[in-house]
Amino acid sequence: MKAKQQSIKCVVWDLDNTVWDGILLEDREVVLRPQVVEILKTLDERGILHSIASRNDYDLAMAKLQEFGIADYFLYPQIHWNPKSASVAQVAQDINIGLDTLAFIDDQPFEREEVAFTYAQVLCIDSMQLDGLLERPEFNPRFITEDSRLRRQMYMADIRRNREEEQYVGATEEFLATLGMVFTIHPAREEDLKRAEELTVRTNQLNTTGYTYSYEELDELSRSPRHRLLISQLEDRHGTYGKIGLTLIEQDPEVWTIKLLLMSCRVMSKGVGMVMIHHLARLAQEAGVKLRAEFVSTDRNRQMLITYKFAGFKEVDRNGEVMIMENNYSAIQPTPPYVTLITD
User: Which of 67, 131, 231, 287 pairs with 189 at a CA distance of 20 to 30 A?
Assistant: First the structure.
């Protein structure tokens, strides 16, 4: 177990003299840079997303990207005349990731400096110096899992869901009921452990401690009779969200302690974090033990503290930076009717 190390989750690209050579508004016959295509494809296969921050005409730029056959690589493209820093921030908000997990690539020193000045945590790169980018550690996750390879497609499904929700007239729970969500919880198997490590590295906002666990540590915990390591998956009529949750429980004769609970930010609005917590509370109550949880405050995970409190956890002790919380089982709720819960 160690402090979280950041890695790049999304690359935000300028277009003129970056993705292509030339300025589109001056020359409609701009030339796509082959090196960029290789980077787009390789990072996409590693599960690293792409977006755009370009001062350009939206329709012309998107038509050119379609012509080059690369438009589908870019999520939430920001093509307008606003400052690049605003575009970068909008991408982070739309994808729901931290600014320190973004890289920004642009040929103009002014644009890179404007972004760096506004958001120092963003990695800014000169588009004329892309040699070696694919070898940099920030762009090389330790494992490339099936969830990594499907990440862009899963985000595109999220875009369709969000578009439907925006157009839906009615209560949120009524919309969620239209999705047909199936939430599966099972003990982590050997084939889940690479994704489990990836989840601890990538998940910041919905992580109760901010700690990461290596594959080797997770493998040991999965075999430990004192611990229960659970992986969660979610799917609906739009497709799979993949493996989106990890929970580690330390089981002593009289007390079970949730050492880690995390959920992918992509499911923040789906309510499955509460489904997981109430499921654990029912298991602990049936086993006749106390249920406690550890929480370590970071600059991003306040939502998880609120989730714990809504689920009936209250602070009972402190151990340095670790808050110890306990559930008295008075707030246990059944699984909501819009979710089918499958457990193993």
Answer: 287
